[in-house]
Predict the 3D structure of the following.
Amino acid sequence: MNKYNLTVNGKNISVEAEPNTPFIYILRNDLKLKGTKYGCGLEQCGACLVISDGEAVYSCSTPISDFNDKNIITIEGISNLEELHPIQKAFVEERAAQCGYCIPGVIISSKVLLDNNPRPNEDAVREALSRNLCRCGTHNSIIKAVLKASQEMNN
């Protein structure tokens, strides 16, 4: 067991784990952050995405050792407890979720996109979300929500 220090959603955390433990297990089991979902375990669906130092990273296949001394944001850290982040608000307004299983990863991808490209066009949104699989078929609503969030964040 090794000790790892990281910042998760603004809080300094120290955990002990085997170096090859997938980070999603640390999030869900040790830190009790259940918003990040385990989908395929093969980097194919994006349900497990978290932000690590500004980049979307698969937590299902990336070991805890890769997150040592990193700043991580999970879906729980996207907004404060007072109000929704504009991305989350746009997803609600556009009804961009059905079952909701993929949505945490989609929102993570959307946030990374908008942090790096505040005014994306539809093609850029589609490209940024290409790592996220939605089986419910809400793709058009998701794209509308991301574009709406972009407008809201830039007004």
DSSP finds five helices and five strands in the chain. The chain has a mean pLDDT of 95.
